């Protein structure tokens, strides 16, 4: 049987509402490819595609997206390769919260700063996810990337990691990441996480996509939005959270149009330019306006858009 046919027999292809795969719980339909091997990813990326990780940090339009959406399956989600030595290759679909918990149990330091971020490892790499206490790039050594049908190993120093961004080549899928953590003790790691956890306690528990705006230089987006009196501002089923002004929450029936309109109202009323932190799929402006990443419509090899 030809290789492509064999791959199609393994990959799962389903048409789904992306609202079911995102933490904000909005978004229309797309053809979703769930891949369990590198060959599956190679086949899935032969046509226009986008990459979906844990579905956080992402706003999908109500009409969905025409490109196929590529997800990594359970074969990429096993965190057991991380052992007490703290030096491991891990699949890009490993959930970050479980990985942080495993590191704590093993007494490994280096992931405390990403405590509570509801992402997968690959998406965390693409966004250089983190908090003021640290980011994934602090522990990252190198990655395996799928690009133009080839698997390439790239050092972390060549990824252009910066504040909530990276410079991966357009059309890249992160397959695996090599992390190096520092041996410590579970007690010391837990104590280091206490400050991160305390900072998270004021965040809303309702459906959200994480912080909506990047912090501008020398200030905090949440403080600026709060100072403008915008907590509780609502458009349809979307609202600026009372608990933390840099969170937009879905009250249960929000549409992507509600959320997008709310973001624009905030940007219009805050006196400092704010850059949206989320990826935006299938919306006017798209990633180019939101992220400064793309330079136009997706081509056969669109930019890496892990949510």
Could you outline the blueprint of secondary structure elements for this entry?
Layout: H1 3-10, E1 12-17, E2 29-35, H2 38-44, E3 49-51, E4 58-60, E5 68-72, E6 87-91, H3 96-106, E7 108-109, H4 121-127, E8 130-131, E9 134-135, E10 140-147, E11 150-155, E12 173-180, E13 182-183, H5 186-200, E14 207-211, H6 221-227, E15 234-235, E16 238-240, E17 247-250, H7 256-269, E18 279-281, H8 286-291
Parallel strand pairs: 2-5, 3-5, 4-18
Antiparallel strand pairs: 1-2, 6-12, 7-13, 8-9, 10-11, 10-12, 14-17, 15-16, 16-17
Structure description:
- The protein has 307 residues and is α+β, with helices and mostly antiparallel strands.
- It folds into three domains: 6-74, Uridine Diphospho-n-acetylenolpyruvylglucosamine Reductase, domain 2 (2-Layer Sandwich); 77-187, Uridine Diphospho-n-acetylenolpyruvylglucosamine Reductase, domain 3; 203-274, Uridine Diphospho-n-acetylenolpyruvylglucosamine Reductase, domain 1 (Alpha-Beta Complex), CATH 3.90.78.
- Helices cover 24% and strands 25% of the residues.
- It contains eight helices and 18 strands.
- The strands form six sheets. The protein has a four-stranded mixed sheet with strand order 1-2-5-3.
- The radius of gyration is 19 Å and the shape is globular.
- It starts with a helix and ends in a 16-residue tail after the last helix.
């Amino acid at each position: 049987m030809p290789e492509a046919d064999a791959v199609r027999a393994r990959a799962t292809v389903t048409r789904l509402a992306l609202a079911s795969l995102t933490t904000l719980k909005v978004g229309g339909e797309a053809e979703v490819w769930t891949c369990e091997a590198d060959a599956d990813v190679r086949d899935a990326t032969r046509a226009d595609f986008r990459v979906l990780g844990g579905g956080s940090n992402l706003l999908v339009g109500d009409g969905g997206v025409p490109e196929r959406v590529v997800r990594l399956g359970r074969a990429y989600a096993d965190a057991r390769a991380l052992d007490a030595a703290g030096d491991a290759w891990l699949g890009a679909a490993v959930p970050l919260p479980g990985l942080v918990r495993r590191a704590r149990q093993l007494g490994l330091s280096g992931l405390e700063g990403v405590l509570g971020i509801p992402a997968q490892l690959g998406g965390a790499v693409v966004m250089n996810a983190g908090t003021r206490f640290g980011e994934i790039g602090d522990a990252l050594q190198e990655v395996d990337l799928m690009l133009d049908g080839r698997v390439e190993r790239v050092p972390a120093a060549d990824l252009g990691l910066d504040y909530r961004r990276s410079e991966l080549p357009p059309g890249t899928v992160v397959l695996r990441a090599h992390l190096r953590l520092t041996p410590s003790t579970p007690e010391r790691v837990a104590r280091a996480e206490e400050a991160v956890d305390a900072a998270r306690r004021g965040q809303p528990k309702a459906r959200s996509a994480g912080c909506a705006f990047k912090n501008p230089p020398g200030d905090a987006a949440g403080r600026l939005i709060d100072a403008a009196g915008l907590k509780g501002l609502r458009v349809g089923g979307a609202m600026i959270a009372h608990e933390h002004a840099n969170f937009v929450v879905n009250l249960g029936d929000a549409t992507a149009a509600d959320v997008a309109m709310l973001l624009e109202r905030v940007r219009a009323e805050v006196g400092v330019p704010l850059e949206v932190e989320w990826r935006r799929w299938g919306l006017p402006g798209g990633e180019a306006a939101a992220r400064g990443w793309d330079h136009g419509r997706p081509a056969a090899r669109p930019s890496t858009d892990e949510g």
